[in-house]
Amino acid sequence: MASDSAKPKGIALSDKQRIAWLRLIRSDNVGPSTFRDLINHFGSAESALAALPELSRRGGAARSIRIASTEDAERELETAHRHGARLTGIGEPDYPPALRQIDGAPPLLAMKGDAASGSRPSLGIVGSRNASISGAKFAAMIARDCGRAGYTITSGLARGIDTAAHRASLDSGTIAVLAGGLDQPYPPENIPLLGDITSGSGLAVSEMPFGWEPRARDFPRRNRLIAGIALGVVVVEAADRSGSLITARMASDFGRLVFAVPGSPLDPRCHGTNGLLKQGAIVTTGSADVLEALAPLSQLDLFHQPVVEEPADTRPPGDMAPPDDDDRATIASALGPTPVEIDDIIRHTGLAAATVYLVLLELDLAGRLHRHPGGLVSLVMFV
């Protein structure tokens, strides 16, 4: 098990960089993947910000793109500070090391509480909001045993299984992942629990700005963070078509372990977990099942070796000439509503990879490109 002294070191962003990063990720049509591509091409967030209007215009935007102002970014940083929180960049020491490995990891993460909790190997525990007594007790047992073994327990602060997992790991360390801003916890009855987490050995994280009230479509985004922070996810009592199954699917996509607790076929709360077992999830009837499977993963280099990531803003900016209209037309015609791999676009068009990536950036910033899991893209079809 990794110690706190072995956590990744990283390099801190300067105040100027943090403002520019925050402005970029809060601007229209800039998600984590777009942020990464912009930094890779232009070398810094400041250079990318300056290029946004022209890129969106070349992509066919119907109106000017909204770019977050310096004042907006400074105000958000001040709000975070006022709430005792901080905005941590993906290459900085306190950023959860497993999360930075996933595709589309948030460039900036709002964090409040004990940063050491985010630097240790983590186990996710999720399940039904309408949990049974036995389901909640089982989740608490797993959380306590794995917490004592050195794992931070990550969950979504929801009712039922999430609450049981958080409460059982308050002393050993737990991470609450929020769908809204850190000042907008849901459900309201878990506000005291969130306070216990952030004032003790736990941590609250969110990629959303302060003041953001969670909506239904924000919860899958939260589930993605749970799956990314954890080395494995235990699912306890999940119905068909539940958010817990979304978390399990994302965990599998990220190469994480998926554990499922078998339940009665007559209990609708267990239909999803029993389905996961049919799909190859690890049968979990006790803490030993989880600890044995996690042991090799907790020794991964990302928890033991100093990982020094130079902030992307120090890379030299690209000086590539803009693609011409023929190149844009060729790439746009190769796209459609069906998601495709970018490598397939490059092979199909015969154009240079840098040209394809830049045109995709233009379409993305113009609101004409849809990014899918696994790095797939499709064209937005307007009706």
Structural features, described:
The chain has 383 residues and is α/β, with parallel strands linked by helices. It folds into three domains: 84 residues, no CATH class; 193 residues, 3-Layer(aba) Sandwich (Rossmann fold), CATH 3.40.50.450; 58 residues, Winged helix-like DNA-binding domain superfamily/Winged helix DNA-binding domain (Arc Repressor Mutant, subunit A, Orthogonal Bundle), CATH 1.10.10. 40% of the residues lie in helices and 13% in strands. It has 15 helices and twelve strands. It has a nine-stranded mixed sheet with strand order 1-2-6-5-4-3-7-8-9, with helices on both faces. A three-stranded antiparallel sheet has the order 10-12-11. Strand 8, helix 11 and strand 9 form a beta-alpha-beta unit. It is globular. The N and C termini lie far apart (54 Å).
How many β strands by DSSP?
A: 12
End-to-end gap: 54 Å
The average pLDDT score comes to: 91
- State the shape: globular
List its traits.
383 residues; alpha/beta; Rossmann fold; Arc Repressor Mutant, subunit A; 3 domains; three-stranded antiparallel beta sheet; 13% strand
